[in-house]
């Protein structure tokens, strides 16, 4: 076979001398078929990309249905939930997503800039998310879309009004402070945007970094925003919990207690509910003598 593209030339060696009229040298080639499961997966991925706008379009209905479908397929359910509880949980989650779709929130008092419509929509979603049963989320706007100012807005919007400035923090009680963990270079951006776009005194800030940082939890709890870096969190976490890991009695690997619970539940030990793929993978491993 010579050449590239659709106009390739196929050279056939007619070595038996029978000429072009004999097709005995040709072997029928059947095109390789894509397995049904793989084909369905590729179709689902394409529909997801199309619905979520990765091909230059955006279909809100398709995107919503795709996201809900992925949540149903990929969510690792708590084993304490029966089928009826799982279905009720999913129905409430989908209803909450549909209910909040398109809603916009008024910017918080003390913010000195005008939020764009999509920023007000994300503010409404994040504010309600913090108060709902389904807490947590990801703000995944592209670079330059104003993620920092959106987060500052939600901090100001849902700031806890606590007497005493959150003095219960050292005892594990509620605290008004928001901990922001980011790269060191991003701390400059956070501080700059708070100083520029927030009314003076409306949002207090401290930077938890460097040798002179405040180490008292009650003092830190008096600030609305505490900025720190990944390196600081990693260092202090490792120093505090380095002796907290315990060894698994089956595989001898060390985990923190919460991780050990998951490890025994799904991966290791006689009572683990292993997935079919994991069980097949472990079956192929050589048995130690």
Automatic annotation (TrEMBL):
<dbReference type="InterPro" id="IPR050628">
    <property type="entry name" value="SNF2_RAD54_helicase_TF"/>
</dbReference>
<dbReference type="Pfam" id="PF00176">
    <property type="entry name" value="SNF2-rel_dom"/>
</dbReference>
<dbReference type="GO" id="GO:0005634">
    <property type="term" value="C:nucleus"/>
</dbReference>
<dbReference type="InterPro" id="IPR000330">
    <property type="entry name" value="SNF2_N"/>
</dbReference>
<keyword id="KW-0378">Hydrolase</keyword>
<keyword id="KW-0547">Nucleotide-binding</keyword>
<dbReference type="InterPro" id="IPR014001">
    <property type="entry name" value="Helicase_ATP-bd"/>
</dbReference>
<feature type="compositionally biased region" description="Acidic residues">
    <location>
        <begin position="11"/>
        <end position="25"/>
    </location>
</feature>
<feature type="domain" description="Helicase ATP-binding">
    <location>
        <begin position="111"/>
        <end position="283"/>
    </location>
</feature>
<dbReference type="InterPro" id="IPR038718">
    <property type="entry name" value="SNF2-like_sf"/>
</dbReference>
<dbReference type="GO" id="GO:0005524">
    <property type="term" value="F:ATP binding"/>
</dbReference>
<feature type="region of interest" description="Disordered">
    <location>
        <begin position="1"/>
        <end position="42"/>
    </location>
</feature>
<dbReference type="GO" id="GO:0016787">
    <property type="term" value="F:hydrolase activity"/>
</dbReference>
<protein>
    <recommendedName>
        <fullName>Helicase ATP-binding domain-containing protein</fullName>
    </recommendedName>
</protein>
<dbReference type="InterPro" id="IPR027417">
    <property type="entry name" value="P-loop_NTPase"/>
</dbReference>
<keyword id="KW-0067">ATP-binding</keyword>
<dbReference type="GO" id="GO:0008094">
    <property type="term" value="F:ATP-dependent activity, acting on DNA"/>
</dbReference>
<dbReference type="GO" id="GO:0006289">
    <property type="term" value="P:nucleotide-excision repair"/>
</dbReference>
